[in-house]
Amino acid sequence: MDTIERLTSLFQRFPGIGPRQAQRFVQFLLRSSPSVRKELVEAVQSLGASVKQCPQCMRFSSGGGKTCSMCSNPERNSKLLAVVATDADIAAMERGGSYRGSYFVLGGTISLASEKTNNLRTKQLLDSLPARIKAGLQEIILAFPANPEGDATAIQVREKLMEIVSPSLVITALGRGLSTGSELEYADPETIKSALDSRR
Amino acid sequence: MDTIERLTSLFQRFPGIGPRQAQRFVQFLLRSSPSVRKELVEAVQSLGASVKQCPQCMRFSSGGGKTCSMCSNPERNSKLLAVVATDADIAAMERGGSYRGSYFVLGGTISLASEKTNNLRTKQLLDSLPARIKAGLQEIILAFPANPEGDATAIQVREKLMEIVSPSLVITALGRGLSTGSELEYADPETIKSALDSRR
Amino acid sequence: MDTIERLTSLFQRFPGIGPRQAQRFVQFLLRSSPSVRKELVEAVQSLGASVKQCPQCMRFSSGGGKTCSMCSNPERNSKLLAVVATDADIAAMERGGSYRGSYFVLGGTISLASEKTNNLRTKQLLDSLPARIKAGLQEIILAFPANPEGDATAIQVREKLMEIVSPSLVITALGRGLSTGSELEYADPETIKSALDSRR
Amino acid sequence: MDTIERLTSLFQRFPGIGPRQAQRFVQFLLRSSPSVRKELVEAVQSLGASVKQCPQCMRFSSGGGKTCSMCSNPERNSKLLAVVATDADIAAMERGGSYRGSYFVLGGTISLASEKTNNLRTKQLLDSLPARIKAGLQEIILAFPANPEGDATAIQVREKLMEIVSPSLVITALGRGLSTGSELEYADPETIKSALDSRR
Questions:
Q1: Given A23, A45, A86, which is nearest D91 (Cβ)?
Q2: Which fold has domain C3-53?
C-alpha cells in the first residue's frame, strides 16, 4: 500500500469520514505547503506528550497542573457534579452558559446493540465520591443523551450511586421536554409526555 | 384559464404545495375513477355542512352535539385546561397519550414578523373562564410551540390571565429540555439551559 | 368515520401526502371561506366534464377540438415524435424549450418490482404510426426516465417498433451524461460511462 | 493556544470540516492508542517525502518511476487524453471503468466568483502536446464539471488548443444529458435540452 492509500485509510478511521472525504483530506494535504503538514505532525505528536487525562474529571486537556483547569478552578461550584458521557458533552454544557459546577466524564454510554460494557468509569466515579462529598457535594446531575443508551446508562449509574451515597445527596437528571425551536405539532409522543410531566 | 390550470392553481394554495405537486394532484385526479372525484367533491361539500367549530374549545369537528365530543366527554378532567395554538396541536397532545384534560384553541400565535394580531381568541378564552372555574378548573397549561412566536404568545396570554384569574388557579407552561432522541452534544445552548433548569 | 376523517383519508391517497399533511389540508379547507371550498368542488367536478384525453397523444387537456391544442397545432413538427411515460414528462420536455415535435403518452413505465404490465399504450402507439408516417414522421424519440424501469420500457417499445416500422424511420433515445450542475467527482460510474460514450 | 485547540483549528482547515467535527477528530486521536497517532504522523511525514507530482499528468502519486504508474503504463491508450480539473476527477473517471486513455490534471477550474486564475496548468498542457501527438494522440477530451466554472474552463482551454493543435486532433467534451437514475419530470430545462441534443 503506498503512502496516499495508507493515509487515506487512516483518515477513514476518523469519526464520520468515508472513503471520498478521506481522499479529499489527502489531496488537501498534498496541495498544502510543507509547513502545514509540519504543523499537523507536530500538533499530533504533542497530543501524546502535552495532553493528559485529568485524574479527577477524566477529561482530556493540556495544562501543567495535577488536575485540569476546571477541576482546579476554585470558582466552580463543588456542590454540583454533572456526570456526562463524553468530553464533547462538557463543551455542550459549557455552551449552555448557566452551569458552574464540576464534571465527571463517564467515557460513553451503555451500548444496547452490542454487549460491550464500553469500559464506563462507573467505579472511578464511585471512588471519587467520598472526597467530593467531603468537599461539599450536594447534587449529582446525570447529563446523558435523551436516547435509549443514555437512559440505560442513567438507570445503571443511578442504581450504583443509590447503594453508597448518603441520603443528603440528591441525584437528578436533565429535564426532558420541547427543545428550543420545536413545534408541538411535530413533537414525538414521548417528548409531549415529558413536556407535560415537566410543566411548571 | 382552463380547468386543469384552475385546479392546479387552487391546489397551489394548499399549505406546503408548489406548482409541481399541484400538477401531480391534478394528474392523479384525472387518472382516478369518477367515483374518487365524486367522493372528494362530497367530502369537501359536507365540510361546510356537517363540520362546525365547537363553541367551547373552538376546534373543528363534526358531530351532532352542542359542544364537541371532547368537551362533552365527562371522563375528561375539567381541572386541567391546555391552551394550544391550533387544532393540530390538540392532535399532538393526544398522541402524547397522558393528557386527559380539556383544551382551548387560541387560533394561532402572535406573529413577530408582521404586525398582525392573528385574531387570537384571547377574549373568548377569558370569557370562558368563570364557567370553567365553577366546573372545577385548577390549572391552565400554556402549550405553545417552543419558539419566539410561542413564547411571545405565552407572555401575552399569561398577562391577560393574571389580571382576572383567582389566586387558586395555577398557570403553567410545557416543560423545556432535551427532546426524546436528542444528544447533548448537538443541543443548542438554550435547550441545555432549559434542561438544567428543569432537572429533577 | 366523520367528514374530517373521511376527507383526511382521501387526501392521503394523493401522491406524496402522508397523514400529517392530509390533516393540514383539511384544516386549511376548514379555515378557508365557503367560496374557496365551492371553487374547489366546481373545479374537481368540471375535470370529469371538460377535460378529456386527446385521442392522438393521450394526454389530458381541456379544449373543444377533436385532438388537443398541441396535436392540432400546425406549427409543431410532425417529423418528430417523442414517446414519454406521463403527462408530467411532456411538461418537462416543454420546459426544455427546444423541442417542437409531437408527443405520445405511453401511460407509465414497466414496473420491475411487480409483474404488472401497467397498461401501457404500446398498441395504440403502434396503431397510430401509419398515419403519422404518412404525415411525415421521420424519428421516434424514446424519452423515458434514466432508470431501470425507463430502460426496460425503452427496450420493449423499441422491439415492438422494430417489427413494423419502415427502415426510413429512426428510433433514438434521450442522451445520457452529466446533468447540468453536476460534478465529475460525485457522478456515479454509469453516468461517467455514458458521458464518455456520448462525448462530442 | 493549547495543543487541543491548535489541532482543532488545524482540522478545521480540512475541506468540509467545521468546529464540531474538528473537535471530534481531536477526541478520537486522544482516545486512540499512541501507535495510531504515530502511524498518522508517519504517513503525513512521508507524504512530503515519497509522494510527488507526475511531471506528465500532474497528479500526485507515490512511486519510484520518472512518471506515475498510469503514465508509464504501456497498456493505457495514448490516442486519448482526458483533461480533468483535479486528481479526484481521475478517480471518478476510473470508477466509470470504460476509459483507458491518459490524463492531464489542469489543477482546478476558472473561478467565476473571484478574479483568480487559479494557476491552471494550461501552459504545461500545451507544452506537452507535441510529444503526445508524436506518440499518437488523436483526441483530447475536456472532462470538466457540468457547471458554469467547468464550462468557462472548457471554453478557455479549447481556444488555447485551437491555436496550436494540428487539424488531425479532435477536441471533444463529456456528453451532457440525463444522469443515471434521474427522471425527466424533475430534470432542469438545460439538462432536457442537452439530452435532446445528444439523443441517438
A1: A23
A2: Helicase, Ruva Protein; domain 3 (1.10.8)
